[in-house]
Amino acid sequence: MEAIINILPQLSQGLGVTISVLLASAFFAYLMAFVAGLCRLSSNKLLRGFTGFYVEVFRGTSLIVQLFWLYYAIPILFGIQLGSNWWAGVIAIALNYGAYMSEVVRSSILAVAKGQTEAATALNMSRFQRMRLVIFPQAVRMMLPEFGNYTIQILKGTSLVSLIGLTDILYYGDIIRSTNYQQAPLVYLLVLVFYFIIALPLIFATRKAESISKKGVAS
């Protein structure tokens, strides 16, 4: 019990970094998902090709490698500084999960019944009006459960930022373990507990999103 009391305050020092990376990464991942997902449905071949390349590259390579590329390789090769290791972590996670979620956006829009589009066309709506008023609201409802699941995955992905020196929960856990190897099982158990507690609101939100999506989409 005494060991737990000593470890908890140290791990909690990384709580702010973990949550800030989670919130920022999720925000930019959602943004990238909608931009890339909509661009992949564009009639412009160049735009479709570019976003398709982005999606396949970030889905087909490791997040750790992407993180290292942004933090270590790009500044050396191109002289582009991302400002801090915090931004490197956020951008890497956002680009990675944004690529995955863009497929959710694209498939959800395509899943809306064609009859909806035909009805909107019959009402003399423009393409933009059809998307904004008819298709997109229904597609978003279908996206919610998957977006919730990916947000939980983003939380798990934030643990990788300790590899580039960000002082998150896992970073402090590693420090404690390095000074007292015998406490390693307890330290990492408490790290798991921290991540699970942070994930709980996301789990409940995902279940709520699933119930909303089950209310149906017009057919």
Task: Report what the structure shows.
- It is a single chain.
- The protein is mainly alpha-helical and about 220 residues long.
- The chain has a single domain, classed as MetI-like fold (Orthogonal Bundle).
- About 80% of the residues lie in helices and about 0% in strands.
- It is built from 9 helices and no strands.
- The chain has helices spanning about 1-10, 15-40, 45-60, 65-80, 85-110, 115-120, 125-155, 170-180, 185-215.
- Helix 7 (about 125-155) runs antiparallel to helix 9 (about 185-215).
- The N and C termini lie far apart (about 60 Å).
- The model has no long low-confidence stretch (mean pLDDT about 90).
Give the helices and strands, then pairings.
Blueprint: H1 2-12, H2 15-39, H3 45-60, H4 63-78, H5 85-111, H6 114-122, H7 127-157, H8 169-179, H9 184-213
Helix pairs in contact: 1-8, 1-9, 2-5, 2-7, 3-5, 4-5, 5-7, 6-7, 7-9, 8-9
Strand runs, count: 0
Oligomer: single chain
Mean pLDDT: 89
Pick out the low-confidence regions: none
Name of the top-level CATH class: Mainly Alpha
- The secondary-structure element order is HHHHHHHHH
List keywords for this structure.
mainly alpha; 80% helix; 9 helices; MetI-like fold
